[in-house]
Design a protein that fits this description.
The protein has nine helices and 44 strands. The longest helix has 21 residues. The chain is elongated and about 120 Å long. It starts with 9 loop residues before the first strand and ends with a strand. Its main location: plastid.
Amino acid sequence: MALLSPTRFLQIHTSAVPRSRKPSPSVSCSAENPDLDLSPARSSIPSLPAAPSDRKSNLTVFASATAAICAAAGGGFLFHFSSPPPPSGGGIGGGGGGWGWGSDGGGFWNNVFSPLPASASEDDQVSGVEWDSHGLPANIIVQLSKLSGLKRYKISEILFFDRRRSSTVVGTEDSFFEMVSLRPGGVYTKVQLQKELESLATCGMFERVDLDCKTKADGTLALTVSFVESTWQGAESFQCINVGLMQQSKQVEMDLDMTDKEKLEYIRMQERDYRRRIERSRSCLLPEPVQDEVVSMLRDQGKVTARLLQRIRDRVQRWYHDEGYACAQVVNFGNLNTRQVVCEVVEGDITQLSVQFLDKLGNVCEGNTQLAVIHRELPNQLRPGHVFNIEAGKQALRNINSLSLFSNIEVNPRPDEKSEGGIIVEIKLKELEQKSAEVSTEWSIAPGSFGRPTLTSIQPGGTVSFEHRNINGLNRSIVGSVTSSNLINPQDDLSFKIDYVHPYVDGVTNPRNRTFRASCFNSRKLSPVFTGGPGADEVPPVWIDRAGIKANITENFTRQSKFTYGLVMEEISTRDETSSVCTHGVRALPSGGLSMDGPPTTLSGTGTDRMVFAQANITRDNTRFINGAVVGQRDVFQLDQGLGIGSNYPFFNRHQLSSTRFIQLRSVEEGAGKLPPPILVMHGHYGGCVGDLPSYDAFTLGGPYSVRGYNMGELGACRNILELAAELRVPIRNTYIYSFIEHGTDLGSSKDVKGNPTEFFRRVGHGSSYGAGVKLGMVRAEYAVDNNSGTGAIFFRFGERF
């Protein structure tokens, strides 16, 4: 009476080289010892993309289905990407009622620790290209035992013959090809071929298997693997369990001398042990729809076959890998010869998180950055107790990279030697230098006689900048810069800015993300308020000098949405071309003279104002990139509130709201090299002011970021403003072309600005434009038509309009 345990595992051992004929995402695992290679292939693809940065920050997320395999194999393994399909077992071992990746008596993990089964693996081939001719007549069948033990045979072809189906296929086209370690073109000895046959015969995948050699005229052998596939009774249900971090049970072999009663008791004991194993396991992440799909596969097939289990394994692993769980691996099938198939998965549970700092030579060293700063940037899914996911690794890279403290960042999962199936996530960081300084100089060049370029001045201009970052290891920093167009005599137009940044106001361990910033500044900009209208004579420019201090606190709700509030104290001076203080705007008269009775340049009328006001800004931004195109929504509200402190006790409320929608017009497949979707951009901007308003703070109409087709401030200066714009972007190759239409109006408020600069400089207070353009890298080349005059012009602008 022959008895068979329904819970006995059928195990696949790892010595065979898996097939690599179908490209699909997977991960391979390679050891320092090249003779132990559990990878599906040795080829690799580039590492994951890093967040944009000027520094060399790259993410080394070595992930794959076999990462879980290596978790049990010790610390000498390294994970990397590869293009072949998810790793699968090579041969089959054991027998009875289950199928899995492992060796007899200990499951898969025991096999990793055990010596490799005897088989002709890729690295066991006879080295070199020399081989011996078989020396036999062509086209005859030779038994394996009749081959010479002294010759080295070259296998030119491998075929598979299914005895049950009576069909023959080329080896690489059969799903069992991954079970055989022999390869066409390889050179093997008789002993190696016999070991391969023994390995296949004892793996449990086949009820019967033979290796037949056929001689060829060129002296090589054609190998045919003839087999009868193992089958089990049909199943109607499917269960997927997570056996990661579970101790692998020791399989006890059935003694052939057992009585029938002892065999029956043995089977019952195996069933009880396996039921307890299932009870101790955790639920897997595999969703119900995929499990239902597997159940349909079982019911459609009828009997459970080895090929069906391969398909189930591939389907389960494909879901894990598509979802980013690249360390997940199907390690076993249990409960075969029952009405239920149990799929055991090691999902890649994170057991430990390690942060290491590296010096310039790549050696581990003590870092300056406090670990709490790093830990707060890590997503929860990358912490112990969660399953390792590639997307979490990418997010960790982006978050750490945003600190701007490191020149190189690596996120590496590696096996936990103390916990079977566990993953240790290692984060390796190279810190930037804490202190840096830079000097850049420039000379202005203008066309001279005959168009030859000449220096406008021998006096060099330039910028001196310095930075002290990561003070006390808490990401605090001091950044400063000094700029002048005349470094020899810088007091003429010296501008400077010094910033102190203090993140984690509420403590580095507090989840609330608030940052304090303090600035001391002195800047000069050309005012667009005092600008002539269309066709007007050139207006003498008015420069706005601002010097003061600003302090604010920014609270980040998400990486793009934030709330900023603070206080500004500044002195504003208006100056002419000679750097002298000017009190009124100037325009040219028809007689050639200058009118000096223009609108006052300051609130006090002296050319210099001092004021203190509160400032707040809230940004809601959920935009994202789809193949390089921006999609989503962005809303910004800003408020400036005068406190009645300063020249003429200014009390005012200046507010503005902008809203932009990036509407995706067509669904596209996301991925590297894929074409972005066409985008419709809708934009609106409203601004208003009540109370005391100095001319230099009036809203201006016209310009590349207001109404295109006009110069800065060409349409007017006003208390209230409304701008509307629409832009259609159509992708072509590596860029996009676009068309746009825009309109801006002062809502009749220009007359309420002190001195009415809009009327004084002969501007109309409203305007529309339309046109088209193309994006060339960072440059926008566009043709815009001015509706007020009906003329068009070509413009080149840097950056984005919205």
